[in-house]
Amino acid sequence: MAGFVGTYSPKLDDKGRLTLPAKFRNALSGGVVVTKGLDHSLSVYPAEKFDETAAKANEASRNDPAARAYVRLMMAGADEQVLDGQGRVHLNAGLRDWAQLQKECVVTGQYDHLEIWDAARWEAYEAAHEEAFAAGGSAALDAIL
After folding, report:
1. Residues 19/87, Cβ–Cβ less than 8 Å
2. By Cβ atoms counted within 10 A, which residue in 5, 54, 58, 130 is the most buried?
3. What is residue 65's DSSP assignment?
4. Is residue 10 predicted with pLDDT exceeding 70?
5. 94, 81 in Cβ contact below 8 A?
6. CA–CA dist 69, 15 (Å, integer)
7. What's residue 59's pLDDT?
8. Domain of residue 59, residue span
9. pLDDT digits over 69-88, tens only?
10. How does residue 21 score in pLDDT terms, banded at 50, 70 and 90?
11. DSSP SS3 for 31
12. How many distinct structural domains can be found in the chain?
């Protein structure tokens, strides 16, 4: 499988470091970009994928004020990093505040990137959306599936 999938439960250490799943470290060895994500999560992209995503987003934002605001916040919050020898990424205070991260975290695979959530916030998000998922999603998913 070429993408990031699954759910993992690492703990944030006292220095703001989070160990990413070992199975993804090769794909992330060229560096990562951590930035603000949707629903107050954090997004972790392999550096080359972030470049692709940022270029597409930048083009889309030229004439749309909402898209411009999204791109501005995504870029302003971006932090380029290389995983340390133990596979950890450092989450700066601004990013930790955005995602309201406490010690217990959840990392979810989103195929082309990872998301980092505070464990309690992820549990609440999952509970709020699992019945719609079980019922078959939405009209937007019908176009995809």
Report:
1. yes
2. 54
3. H
4. yes
5. no
6. 31
7. 82
8. 7-135
9. 888 999 999 999 999 999 99
10. very high
11. coil
12. 1
Residue 141: inside a domain, yes or no? no
**For the residues of 80-92, what is the DSSP string, one character each?**
EE---TTSEEE--
Q: What burial letters (b/e) apply to 8-26, b meaning 16+ CB within 10 Å?
A: bebebeeeebbbbbeebee
Tell me the CA end-to-end span of the chain in Å, nearest whole number.
19
Query: 1 lies in a domain?
Result: no
Class of residue 43 by CB neighbours under 10 A (exposed 0-12, middle 13-18, buried 19+):
buried
CA distances from 3 to 20, 45, 66 (A): 15, 12, 29
Q: Could you give the CA distance from residue 104 to residue 142 in angstroms, rounded to a whole number?
A: 34
Res 24 pLDDT > 70: yes
